[in-house]
Amino acid sequence: MASVRFGLVGYGFGGRYFHAPLITSAPECDLIGVMTSSPERQALIAREIPGTPTFASLTALRDAGVEAVAISTPADTHSSLTEQALELGLAVVCDKPFALDPNAARRTVALADERGLLLSPYQNRRFDSDFRTVRKLVADGKLGTVTRFESRFERFAPQRGPGKSGGGTLLDFGSHLVDQALVLLGPAVSVYAELRIRESGLDDDVFVALTHAGGARSHLWGSWSQSAPGPRYRVTGTDATYVLGPGDTQENALLAGETPASLADRWGVEPPDSYGTLYTGTESSPYATERGRWDLFYSTFAGAVRGNNPLPVDPHDAIATATVLEAARSSATTGTVVEVPAS
């Protein structure tokens, strides 16, 4: 198929490390240019993606022939930039948080539906090696019926987060944690949440407990200031439990300068000494981790633009996640269990 002409909006941490390397590595995509007004970031682009022009506006990107854009800017600009891009007739990938609240998410998704344009939240964590492993275990029936899903994004990197650009830990890590829980166990009907407000005024040390419509429960933790992170997953079912300590390493690879293009078939492959453990009663054994496939996101999105396959992530899923996150914030404020309204 003809490659899809992409524009990248923003070249901060996310644009630089999570979007540009994956777009340029996807044979189905052609990075036409980057929208940024920062001289420092323009210099970075010239050094790191030689020959890639920069643009001052979405209109300029559209006029340069771009068909689709990836939005990777501060959280409070996501809705306005995504809607502006849709008004210009562009397909859009929007980084998390997709929107600051469910009403904004609904408005953006409705605009895409009205215009007949493709829109996808950037939920790359659905393609994590560890989450792909959990989904395989569940699909293969290895755990029996899942009763509790415990999931953590915990780090000690207070200098990096929770930054204003991400909107705080509940919206930042929470967007991925809640999305994975909903994908795995279906809609949530109630939520209880706790968080701590840091000196910056932004939340951190988040805990979210979901009760799903099917009866299972999710316990989710997110922190940028945890010196002793817990296991990435503990997933308990009626027949077995799966525990994984260290999580997916695709982010580490990108930060080290590797890409799917540079590593080829080695991209996303986790070493055997990092495999999780499957516990069945009193017995346990290592369980091989699936390959991480962040490299599939933009290839799949490009295929959707060409009409060859569905979107990698349905935009309506972002409404469901935003609805849960708003209920979680209400719970943390009131100290009560909050019902999750239908999204």
The domain tally reads: 2
CATH superfamily of the largest domain, please?
A: Dihydrodipicolinate Reductase, domain 2
User: Mean pLDDT across all residues, rounded?
Assistant: 96
End-to-end Cα distance: 36 Å
Number of contiguous helices: 11
C-alpha geometry: globular
CATH fold descriptor of the largest domain: Dihydrodipicolinate Reductase, domain 2
Q: Any idea of the CATH class of the largest domain?
A: Alpha Beta
Report the uncertain regions: none
Instruction: From the alpha carbons, calculate the radius of gyration and give it in angstroms.
Output: 20 Å
- Architecture of the largest domain in CATH? 2-Layer Sandwich
The structure class reads alpha/beta
Beta-strand percentage range: 15-25%
Report the helical percentage: 25-40%
What string gives the helices and strands in order? EHEHEHEHEHEHEHEEEEEHHEEHHE
Looking across the biggest beta sheet, what order are the strands in?
14-13-12-11-7-10-9-8-15
Main pleated-sheet profile: 9 strands, mixed
Kindly state the number of beta strands: 15
Descriptive notes:
The strands form 2 sheets. The chain has a 9-stranded mixed sheet. With 343 residues, it is an alpha/beta fold. The chain has 11 helices and 15 strands. The model has no long low-confidence stretch (mean pLDDT 96). It is globular and about 60 Å long. Helices cover 36% and strands 24% of the residues. Helix 4 links the parallel strand 4 (68-71) and strand 5. It folds into 2 domains: 4-124 and 298-313, NAD(P)-binding Rossmann-like Domain (Rossmann fold, 3-Layer(aba) Sandwich), CATH 3.40.50.720; 127-292 and 323-339, 2-Layer Sandwich (Dihydrodipicolinate Reductase, domain 2), CATH 3.30.360.
